Amino acid sequence: MTKACRAGPLFTDLYELTMAASYYAHRIFSPATFSLFIRDNHLTRSFFVAAGLEDVLDELTGFHFPGQDLEYLETTGLFSEEFISYLAQLRFSGDMYAMPEGTIFFANEPVLEVTAPIIEAQLIETFVLNTIGFQTMVTSKAARCVHAADDRQLIDFSLRRTQGQDAGIKVARSTYLAGFAATSNVLAGKIYDIPTSGTMAHSYIEAFDSEPEAFSAYSDTFPQHTIFLIDTYDTIEGAKNAVKVAKAMKEKGNELIGVRLDSGDMADLSKKVRKIFDDAGLIDVKIFASSGFDEFKIAKVLSEDAKIDAFGVGTKVGVSADAPYVDIVYKLVHFKNRAVRKVSPGKITLAGEKQVFRKSNLNGCYLEDVIGVRDEKVSDGAPLLEKVMENGKLLRSNPSLQDIRDRFSKNFSLLDEKYKSIHDKVDYPVKLSKMLKDLQKSI
Amino acid sequence: MTKACRAGPLFTDLYELTMAASYYAHRIFSPATFSLFIRDNHLTRSFFVAAGLEDVLDELTGFHFPGQDLEYLETTGLFSEEFISYLAQLRFSGDMYAMPEGTIFFANEPVLEVTAPIIEAQLIETFVLNTIGFQTMVTSKAARCVHAADDRQLIDFSLRRTQGQDAGIKVARSTYLAGFAATSNVLAGKIYDIPTSGTMAHSYIEAFDSEPEAFSAYSDTFPQHTIFLIDTYDTIEGAKNAVKVAKAMKEKGNELIGVRLDSGDMADLSKKVRKIFDDAGLIDVKIFASSGFDEFKIAKVLSEDAKIDAFGVGTKVGVSADAPYVDIVYKLVHFKNRAVRKVSPGKITLAGEKQVFRKSNLNGCYLEDVIGVRDEKVSDGAPLLEKVMENGKLLRSNPSLQDIRDRFSKNFSLLDEKYKSIHDKVDYPVKLSKMLKDLQKSI
Q1: Given CA atoms B91, A203, A221, A287 in this order, what sign does their dihedral have?
Q2: B189-203 burial, b for 16+ CB within 10 Å, e for fewer?
Q3: pLDDT in tens, B287-321
Q4: How far is CA B216 from CA A340, B244, B247, in A?
Q5: Which of A274, A292, A318 is the last residue of a domain?
Q6: Closest among B267, B268, B272, B275 to B293, alpha carbons compared
Q7: How far is A337 from chain B (nearest CA, A)?
Q8: In terms of domains, do A360 and A434 share one?
């Protein structure tokens, strides 16, 4: 598998390096544990889907400062020669507990905990926050779309509007993980072996003297893979033109896969277009729809009984438009054999090394989670954080994206419908164990 | 200058390749002109700042399909061997007109026009939209912050929450272009030679037995570069601790640069902290503030007379939280010697190859823009689109980021204050020339 570009150790905030230099100067190398979690301030999400761990593990296993990065750091004039030499030999030697990708989790639950010499644990903060935060956010948004679409196929169309190149590639992975059927993104198709999908733009139609001519030309090239875009001039006329060309295709033994609507009143148009195809005996021709879809618009058109078989979902999911960031943080919780807690106003952190235990009913459906102390036992609670790295070494190979996708799909079926509401935030019960509560009081 | 990762030709939607294959099969190679512009639907922005052109030109000058990309395309089973061979030798051979980075522009104005054989012009669509769209969006958001901060320094703190890696790097460039003073992003500092800034996190304070001990340790390491974070336990107590350490620093001949507030009521705390330092005779110690700042929060705390000298601006600018995408499109406007126009409901495009002319008053202040036909003359109107590429060759070297930043700063001073309101969208006058209107009617 070819990866997208590697971030490298300079993908960090300067203060991570200045703090590291100060720890180094004072010979502070004790192990520290940092906990990664999403705060619940102003959240509009009832659940999250863990994603991004593969990139984190890939980055950490190869973590080192190349010579040109050290040369750049020298030019800043901030760092001693001794510290630069120390960085030159630095590798990531820590332990990591993490929820596997595709795990459903909730606000305030640690999704990842790192224990490493404090300099190492600090230097990776920015990268870990960025990577898990963004991919978790988009995967969670995509899961909401999958739920709203109620078994209809979704295709990621976001590449042209994602926030940069890396985002485009990660959105394709995240949406596929959440259950999308395909992506328009060819590079992501190559990197992650995701099915790709796509047909034609308005410009293709305009490049021909007439719409039927454009349809015919396209179906000549792709007799088995044709979806006509029918709204360039008029959707209803477009549907009629598509019927004519579909019949001509049939005479040659080919089937039109579908047509795509890209503007106008989607529920109304889809019903009219469905009728046009049904009346022509083309009941297998599918109707695809695109243009501003997200979970809200999908739910709206389906509530209006739209006759849409598949949705192209783009911009609004690719940037998580209604919630374009999550308040994800990476906080020191354990240092020098003591639990640590920050108490700045409105910013409480749960001290100590932790585990999240999930209780389920006899059918496997999720009942409640208990955040506990790492090593305690919670009866009937399955631990969600797995040890994935020890002394900087991976403890398992990365699961395939298909396996992660299957895991999420199963997990999602075990989450009660009420937590999947796209309109209301419904709090899933997350409790603290007595041992964890006692630990907080003891500080 | 080291660049971030290159996208490559597979950074595209599949339909660009299927359309290309169909054009190739039908021997359609005529030049097409596509126009890039931002639609004004639901916009909350009065102006935009052009950005991203450097990346577009870099990508296009190196545009080609590496062998492994062609091999991947073969595996899709969609493309003929002949077409794959055609792609193997394809380079970008087109012309491009574009507004230089740092140019202020408005909705519906073409910011870039490409003329190339239709296959080439189509294949670059996704990359061009993504690149210009994202960087323009963030630069425009950053310019609003610069305006709200009214000459106070701004520092980009967004890296941990940007939408992926590429976004993090581009946000640092975009915010610097718009007038930010520095970034916390070390990688962007290296790539773009942007000043970097940063000091300490809460975890650094917590790693020591007490706050004064942490402050002293840090100032030992960086006697000339110290800004204390003072809200870990209590901002007022933190300020008092900072005063003590600052006095100890003074005795050794060093000056504390400043302190940073990161939570609580910023206006109120900043006044109290200012008084604590002033009363101690430390009038040169600066107050930095971070935590959720964007143009709205900056304006709010300054309206409350906050005593803040510099703002760390992060997440909300890094993802353009109030407007996380722009409706940027790339539309066919000219093909086979005729102007082309799409008329889908609510999606009107101005046909023809165009130029944007800007009229200014005697002081250089912007009065109005006229969108005209590419080759017409508009009296007193300065053309904004420059020819930057001909037959696939760059016509000029890329300006330095510093030059672009200076250009924007000058341009921004020529835009009337009323268009800079962060709360209201105020329409700058953008007219169509008679020649362009006549062209639209003729289609």
Answers
A1: positive
A2: bbbbebebbbbbbbb
A3: 999 999 999 999 999 999 999 999 999 999 999 99
A4: 20, 10, 11
A5: A318
A6: B267
A7: 11
A8: yes
What are φ and ψ of residue A48, in 5° steps? -125, 160
Calpha distance B166→A171 (Å, rounded)? 13
Nearest chain B residue to A162, by CA: B130
Q: Would residue A7 count as lying in a domain?
A: no
Q: Which pLDDT belongs to residue A44?
A: 83
Residue of A186, A235, A327, A333 for testing the chain B interface, max B β-carbons within 10 Å: A186
The CATH number assigned to the domain holding A198 equals 3.20.20.70
- Whether residue A324 and residue B217 make contact (CB cut-off 8 A), yes or no, is no
Amino acid A71 reads E
Q: What are phi and psi of A309, to 5 degrees?
A: -95, -25
Other Cβ atoms closer than 10 A to B348:
14
Does pLDDT of B231 surpass 90?
yes
Q: Does B314 lie at the interface with A, CB-CB under 8 angstroms? A: no
> Which structural domain range is residue B421 located in?
14-138+327-442
pLDDT in tens, A254-310: 999 999 999 999 999 999 999 999 999 999 999 999 999 999 999 999 999 999 999
**Residue A356's Cα: distance from chain center in Å?**
21
Helix%, strand%, coil% for chain B, nearest 5: 40, 20, 40
pLDDT of residue A7: 83
Q: B392 Cβ partners below 8 Å, 6+ apart?
A: B60, B61, B91, B92, B93, B94
ipTM of the complex model: 0.96
- Is A198–B18 a contact, with Cβ atoms under 8 angstroms apart? yes
Q: Within a 10 A sphere around the Cβ of B278, how many other Cβ atoms?
A: 12
Determine contact: A344 vs chain B, CB below 8 A: yes
Burial B322-346 (b: 16+ CB within 10 A, else e): bbbbbbbbbbbbbbeeebbbbebee
Q: Domain check: are B181 and B239 in the same one? A: yes
Q: Is A54 on the interface with B (CB under 8 A)?
A: no
Q: Closest by alpha carbon to A319, among A163, A169, A159?
A: A163
Facing B159 at nearest CB: one of A126, A170, A335: A126
| Type and span of the H or E element at B131 | helix B125-149
Pull the structure tokens for residue A416: 């009660």
In angstroms, rounded to a whole number, what is the distance separating the alpha carbons of residues A21 and A24?
5
B254-266 confidence digits (pLDDT tens): 999 999 999 999 9
* CATH number of the domain within which A127 lies: 3.20.140.10
The fraction of chain B above a pLDDT of 70, given in percent, is 97
**Burial per residue of A275-307, b for 16 or more beta-carbon CB atoms within 10 angstroms, e otherwise:** ebbeebebeebbbbbbbbbbbbbbbebbeeebb
Chain B residues inside the 8 Å CB shell of A34 = 203
Verify that A294 and A191 share a domain, yes or no.
yes
Place of tokens 């102007």: B339
- In this complex, do B72 and A190 lie within 8 Å of one another by their Cβ atoms? yes
The reply to whether A158 and A288 lie within a common domain is yes
Within this chain, do residues A132 and A175 fall inside the same structural domain, yes or no? no
What residue has token string 């250009």? B407
Q: How confident is the model at residue B5 (pLDDT cuts 50, 70, 90)?
A: low
CA distance B184 to B156: 6
Point out the residue among B14, B34, B206 whose CB comes nearest to the CB of A186.
B14
- Say which residues have a Cβ less than 8 Å from residue A389's Cβ, sequence separation at least 6: A57, A60, A94, A95, A96, A395
Residue B358, SS3 per DSSP: strand
The pLDDT confidence band at residue B1, using thresholds 50, 70 and 90, is: very low
Buried b (16+ CB within 10 A) or exposed e, B75-111: ebebbeeebeebbeebebbbbbbbbbbbbbbbbbbbb
pLDDT band for position B2 (50/70/90)?
A: very low
**Tokens encoding A192:** 């992650």
